[in-house]
Specification:
8 strands, five-stranded mixed sheet, 43% helix, 7 helices, three-stranded antiparallel sheet, alpha+beta
């Protein structure tokens, strides 16, 4: 079996991977944006953008080339009649990937991949905006003192939001003294020392005990049985 050149293969075989990417492309062109894993989104981007490049040609040969991968004729029609004309002035970068955090359960990094349908600004508009920003810069330069005032007020507010029995992460990444339970703010899970994912987890907040983490609304990662480890 041939070895993939861009990291681990998504499916069990090259044909399986091609079918997966074709199905993801079809869903992307139909709904204009889809949610998937970061790995699949990065592998989907060049495949989808190449189909858009074929669609921008608009001839019969390009349509037949796209229909080798997309089985839904209505999606192909949408690609050639709506999506491609909207991107006629765009030289590239037809898709945008936005990371949205990890998925609960397997902790897989997730992302939203969407079509960039916004119109491209002409060069004259860009030049006009640049000149306007340059002329307005000297007038706005003296107003900088209130920013320092706001900066001083932010730190106490952030500290007051920490729940009882918790501590913010240190700059060196080490655990604060007396705080050994790691917490993940995105998944609202906690990890006790010795548990399965403890060493691979970067603490966004530290707790002095599992009880403090539970009181703050955090749940045990992998269930209570996975976190019943002597600390």
């Amino acid at each position: 079996m041939p070895t993939p050149t861009k990291g681990p293969r998504l499916g069990g075989s090259p044909s399986h991977q091609r079918l997966m990417l074709a199905n993801l492309s079809q869903q992307l062109f139909e709904h204009k944006r889809i949610t998937t894993t970061v790995t699949k989104a990065k592998r989907l981007r060049p495949v989808a953008e190449r189909m858009i490049t074929f669609a921008k040609r608009g001839d019969l040969a390009a349509r037949r080339r796209v229909m080798r991968q997309l089985t839904d004729k209505s999606v192909v029609h949408e690609l050639f009649t709506a999506i491609a004309p909207a991107m006629a002035d765009r030289p590239g970068g037809y898709t945008r990937i936005t990371k949205i955090g990890n998925r609960s359960g397997d902790n897989a990094p997730m992302a939203v991949i969407e079509l960039v349908m916004e119109p491209v600004a002409s060069q004259s508009v860009v030049n006009e905006a640049t000149s306007a920003a340059a002329s307005a810069a000297p007038a706005e330069a003296p107003v900088e003192e209130p920013a320092a005032e706001a900066e001083v007020v932010e730190t106490p507010a952030a500290e007051g939001e920490l729940p009882a029995g918790s501590h913010g992460p240190l700059e060196d990444g080490e655990a604060p003294e007396g705080f050994s339970v790691k917490g993940n703010s995105n998944s609202m899970k906690y990890h006790v020392p010795g548990s399965r994912w403890y060493n691979s987890t970067t603490a966004e907040i530290w707790f002095d005990s599992a009880e403090s983490a539970i009181a703050a609304g955090y749940a045990p990662a992998g269930g209570e049985a996975a976190q019943k480890v002597s600390e």
